[in-house]
Design a protein that fits this description.
The protein is an alpha/beta fold. It has two domains: about 170 residues, Rossmann fold (3-Layer(aba) Sandwich), CATH 3.40.50; about 160 residues, 3-Layer(aba) Sandwich (Rossmann fold). Helix content is about 35%, strand content about 15%. It has 13 helices and 13 strands. The strands form three sheets. Strands 1, 2, 3, 4, 5, 6 and 7 form a seven-stranded mixed beta sheet that branches. A three-stranded parallel beta sheet has the order 8-9-10, with no helix packed on it. It has a three-stranded parallel beta sheet with strand order 11-12-13. The longest helix has 20 residues. The radius of gyration is 21 Å and the shape is globular.
Length: about 350
């Protein structure tokens, strides 16, 4: 039997509230389509003053008990799929995974992010939180039978960290489901090579500081949260939409996948992370039928080149010259390839291929 963990909140009256992001929800829906059985684990609110060791330990212990109770009916020979990082942390996570493996249950982990090379490096993260996140990661690498990672670059990165090559399965890119996909509505959008460059996602300065230093020679359409609006004649802030609705409101020529502080190259913690990361926004652009622009040193550059679905650049400043030399025929090819990949993303093909291995 195949099971998957579904972390969730309960509101008043014990009504279910999802705690998952779009990426996690899509994976849950693909699991359900494949007849996997969900195991629901409640995310409990932290109670008391977490500065007290006794209170903190009690909360971590409660999380452990929730997990052990949830998997009590999973039997030897079953498979348990876990999306990682966890949305509710526990210092007893290693003990839980060890218990699961001792029951003869196979653990398959889907990696969304490696927090040890992302969040832990931030200056605002406490030593204790960093320790817990790194400990949870090491436990996953130790006890998982299989680990579904983003791409070949992340696979090679983890091999160098000592993770067994036999455990690691590259996903390539994340799927992006669009329920009740409306072909006619998508055709009404302004998607052509003369439209602005699209930037979608978190626009907060600490995450995407480059957004506030975009070159004046290009036009940009911005979609997302956290944008500190400034008066730039070439930048158009389009607001916030729900993930399943945004594809229908998207207008532009290319979707830009960039991160960090600078426009000349991808810098900082999040910029450097692109070397092993397959950002969900990349899948969003392609699922929406729009070609992409990625950093030359990113993990996704190879995918873009091999699949002819966009441009690869060293810097955002380089985009203008690339666009000037791009023909209508080349742009139509990019759009055609983006739509072909988009069909696969909207059907969940990338994860389903991995699950068949």
């Amino acid at each position: 039997m195949n099971y998957f963990i579904k972390e969730q909140f309960y509101s008043k009256g014990r009504t279910f509230k999802s705690a998952a992001s779009k990426a996690r929800l899509d994976i849950e829906n693909i699991f359900l389509r494949e007849q996997f059985e969900p195991i629901k684990i409640e995310i409990i609110p932290r109670k008391g003053n977490m500065n007290y060791i006794s209170t903190s330990l009690k909360n971590h212990f409660q999380v452990m008990l929730l997990w052990l109770a949830a998997i009590k009916n999973v039997e030897q020979g079953d498979k348990l799929f876990i999306q990682f990082p966890l949305q509710q942390h526990s210092i007893f996570w290693d003990f839980v995974l060890k218990k699961i493996r001792k029951k003869g249950i196979e653990i398959i982990t889907v990696i969304h992010d490696l927090e040890s090379v992302r969040v832990v490096k931030r200056k605002d993260i406490s030593f204790l939180k960093g320790f817990i996140l790194k400990k949870e990661e090491s436990s996953v690498f130790r006890w998982s039978s299989k680990i579904i990672v983003h791409n070949d670059s992340m696979k090679e990165f983890l091999i160098k960290r000592g993770v067994s090559v036999n455990k690691l399965i590259p996903l390539k890119i994340f799927d992006y489901l669009i329920p009740n996909y409306d072909v006619q509505a998508m055709r009404k959008r302004k998607i052509n090579r003369l439209q602005p460059i699209v930037i979608a996602g978190t626009l907060r300065p600490h995450k995407a500081n480059y957004v506030y230093h975009l070159p004046s020679g290009l036009k940009f359409n911005l979609y997302g949260v956290g944008y500190v609006q400034k008066n730039h004649p070439n930048i158009y802030y389009k607001g916030v939409y729900k993930p399943n609705d945004l594809p229908y409101f998207l207008e532009g020529s290319f979707g830009l996948v960039w991160d960090g502080d600078d426009t000349k190259t991808c810098t900082g913690i999040y910029g450097d992370y692109l070397k092993i990361n397959s950002p969900h926004k990349f899948s969003f652009y392609l699922a929406s039928g729009i070609p992409v622009i990625v950093w030359k040193k990113s993990a996704l550059a190879k995918f873009v080149i091999n699949n002819e679905c966009g441009l690869v650049v060293d810097s955002i400043e380089e985009i203008k010259s690339k666009l000037m030399s791009l023909s209508d025929v080349e742009y139509r090819l990019f759009c055609l390839k983006a739509n072909t990949i988009g069909e696969r993303l909207r059907s969940g093909s990338y994860l389903k291929e991995v699950l068949l291995r």
